[in-house]
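so the lab meeting is tmrw and i was supposed to have these ready like two days ago... anyway. pasting both below. for each one the top line is the aa sequence and the line under it is the structure tokens. i havent really looked at them closely yet so no promises
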Amino acid sequence: MPRAKIEKTAKTCNLLTPLEIKNTKLPEGKAETALNDGGGLYLIITENRKRWRYRYGLNGKMFKQWLGEYPKVTLAQARKLRNDSLSKGKEGKKGKDPRIEKQVAKIAAQYSIANTFAAYTEKYVLKS
């Protein structure tokens, strides 16, 4: 099956098509296989699911980040997430680690919810 190739600087990106992703099955006798979309984006296929993983380098180390499960996260969304992570990694001199940024956002959201609940309790429950 031929793959569409789009040259982007020195690396090849956007190798996969939505139809190819939809029709790909796990080869017999394998526990896991990966389809490369280029630019560090892979579709990891196991027996019961397909998930997007982004592999990137930062400060001389290699990292992996899960981006979501297919079809909940489409090919276009996975590419956008990869590109967003890539641009975050290039900001500043050393760059920002997308994994840390995601953790910080999650903690900030939990803290925000906790503060809202505390404010609600103080205002309505304790004053009653």
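ok protien two:
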Amino acid sequence: MSYPYELDGKTLWDAGSESGRLYFSLTRGAAEHIQLPTGLTHIDRLGGCDIELSTFRVFVEGLYDSYSRTNSDVLQGLWRGLLVTSLVLLDMAGSSIALSAEHEEALRSDMASFGCSMGAPNWRQYSS
């Protein structure tokens, strides 16, 4: 069973049912916290999500801003998995956001690992 994330009818991430549903739930909680829409819409017929790219990009920028602004290791840890998954999904959609030099190496390393697991065709580009 899968939980596909689609953009314009093309499946970007064919997530497993559990990971896809959990990611969707986490984005909704984060969206409430940062007060931004996710750009993800649940599709009953697919059991997955449609991505509205411009809104999703702004959402990912908001996640990164929240991740970058905190001095709390706990908060950074809580943000990190959601952020990395979102960065890979955004890249799979053909978009990206700028990462500061302070975070780029560590996030790109995680993106390589996540990207491989998420089926990103160019996941190797994230590793140095």
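from a quick look at the 2nd one: The beta strands are 2-7, 10-16, 40-43, 48-51. The mean pLDDT is 94. will dig more after coffe
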